[in-house]
Amino acid sequence: MTGSTVVSGAAAASRSRRSRALGRLVFLGPGLAYLVAFLLIPLALVLGYTVFRRGRFGGVVYEVTGENFTRLLDPLYLEVVLGSLKLATIATVIALLAGYPTAYLIARLPRRWKTVALVAIVLPFWTNFLVRVYAWIVLLSGPGLLNGALEKIGLGPYELLYGQGAIVTGLVYSYLPLMVLPLYAAIERLDPQLREASANLGASPARTFFSVTLPLTRSGVVTGCLFVFVPSFGNFIVPELLGGGRSIMVGNLIRDQFLKARDWPFGSTLALALLAVLIVLLLLQAWSARRA
Amino acid sequence: MLQITGVSRRFGDVTALSDVSLEIRQGEFFALLGPSGCGKTTLLRILAGFESPDAGSVTLDGADLLGRPAHRRPVNLMFQSYALFPHMTVAKNVAYGLERERLPKAEVRTRVGEVLEKVGLTEAAGRRPHQLSGGQRQRVALARAIVKRPRLLLLDEPLSALDKQVRAEMQLELKRLQHEVGITFVVVTHDQEEAMSLADRIAVFNAGRVEQVDEPVALYERPRTPFVAGFVGAGNLFPGRACAVGLAADGLGVLPGASDLPDGTSALLAVRPERVRLAPETAEGAGTLRGEVADVSFYGGVSHVSVAVPGCERPVLVAVQGATRARPGTRVALSWAPEDGVLVPQ
């Protein structure tokens, strides 16, 4: 009697364990399957290609070689990587300088207007990314709207399109919302009494900002910078359309290796280098978040 | 020292302060007492510079205070939530205000050390606020405010976030500190016991107005408005009309009281529970009320007896020393000396 109870109890326990595992699979399954099929497998392929040689007419020859990596150090490519780093950094800094005051103001609006302002910030995402970048061509081109306006007041025309300035403009424009949102979240969380306490202790508004507000919203700053930097660094649409092909970024380079030069192994190696830089950045962000 | 004259402030349709005038003296421990939403916190925020009044003036030692921005006022505020900087250590929090005065580093260090010792937190100097207990945080907030040696220290509900035991302890400590540093303290509180035990003088606020300014004992024993009589201490209030020997109460006859009001004035008679004498029903006396004990609660030092008196809307509360033999259902007679019945014009 007692023995059979124990046995059936154990059976029930193992059954419930099985059904819990099954439950987890049902919940996680679809997402997991998608990730494996469209992220892990392609990533593994890219990783694999980096050690092989390109075929004479494209494709991959399965002969192990290290030359893709030595080629990375070629000044020609290094310059592109460094140039992309520079442009992405400038875009991030500008987005931060423009985004912080915006986020700060929104966080201090009355609740009703906050929602309106946040929707307005996200609104551009409802339009296709390409279309929005094309719109900048119309704005910046030689006989474009901006030059037209400048000429009316007796300035210009300037060559606004097809240069690093245009690329940075496009990147900032595209990713500014991704800067504003995490900043807004961080500033909104900040207890307004801390600013009052700072003022009460004799700190000028500027001092309060640098000693209290900024340090306490650092997590938002780091997240926002990452959100802007990561897609900017590997971007190829903006430099393609607004850069005029002259100042090519690493994203273009990778795409060209795959589609134009048909050098999949080297394209993969470049992609891996890009990934490595971004992983280092993410680790830095995680470390900074843990410290805060 | 601090002169508040005719200060008014409205938020939309809500009048937070209406023509408030107060004079606070040098070295005084002054309390602003009132229920929540009575305007006392708004007044505190005006003094600190976080709010501006629509009308009126505030001078500190004869100099206008309202024209100065918050960070240039010789006034420090201890926030109800303490508002300690979470990213700084205790010592850094306390040093923050001194660093803004651009004092030499050595002096900042000595003064921070001194004040931390004064509040008993020398050991905790290197800790962050989230590693402290509520009582310790409260002391850091206090240290941060007094280290600047302000002319005026404002305290917003300084003890409300503490539990009962720590509260009593901090109450004594606040008083001791105030004596030691000699700074004028203005404390905002909704807790009348806190105000009574801390303050030299109390201003009772109601709906944006000052009802009465007095010393604690006078406020308790001689309330001048019905609001004060009801808000300060659990009082027994009887409505009626003033007469020569007290109050002609509605439906209860003449109740004894001391009055300088003209006969026939509509008034309330306020009697403190501990002034009411409880006697067996057989006893005779003028102005005596008769009733039946409804409830007895024993608090250790005192017992509260509530007596249902026919004709009285609410039970009459009586406080007796120690335990009482009265039980629910006992018929009793209530009386008090004429000087313990205070007439308040209505």
From TrEMBL, chain A:
The chain crosses the membrane at residues 25-52, 87-106, 118-141, 161-187, 208-230, 266-287. PROSITE patterns: ABC_TM1. Residues 81-287 form the ABC transmembrane type-1 domain. This is Spermidine/putrescine ABC transporter permease. It is found in: Cell membrane. Belongs to the binding-protein-dependent transport system permease family. CysTW subfamily. One of its GO terms (biological process) is transmembrane transport. Pfam families: BPD_transp_1 (PF00528). Keywords: Cell membrane, Membrane, Transmembrane, Transmembrane helix, Transport. It is a multi-pass membrane protein. One of its GO terms (cellular component) is plasma membrane. Gene3D superfamilies: MetI-like. It comes from the Bacteria. CDD domains: TM_PBP2 (cd06261). Its main location: membrane.
From TrEMBL, chain B:
It comes from Planomonospora sphaerica. The lineage of its organism: Bacteria, Bacillati, Actinomycetota, Actinomycetes, Streptosporangiales. InterPro entries: AAA+_ATPase, ABC_SmlMolc_Importer, ABC_transporter-like_ATP-bd, ABC_transporter-like_CS, Mo/tungstate-bd_C_term_dom, P-loop_NTPase, Transp-assoc_OB_typ2. One of its GO terms (cellular component) is ATP-binding cassette (ABC) transporter complex. PANTHER family: SPERMIDINE/PUTRESCINE IMPORT ATP-BINDING PROTEIN POTA (PTHR42781), SPERMIDINE_PUTRESCINE IMPORT ATP-BINDING PROTEIN POTA (PTHR42781:SF4). Coiled coil: none annotated. One of its GO terms (molecular function) is ATP hydrolysis activity. Signal peptide: none annotated. Residues 2-232 form the ABC transporter domain. This is Spermidine/putrescine ABC transporter ATP-binding protein. Keywords: ATP-binding, Nucleotide-binding, Transport. Gene3D superfamilies: 2.40.50.100, P-loop containing nucleotide triphosphate hydrolases (3.40.50.300). SMART domains: AAA.
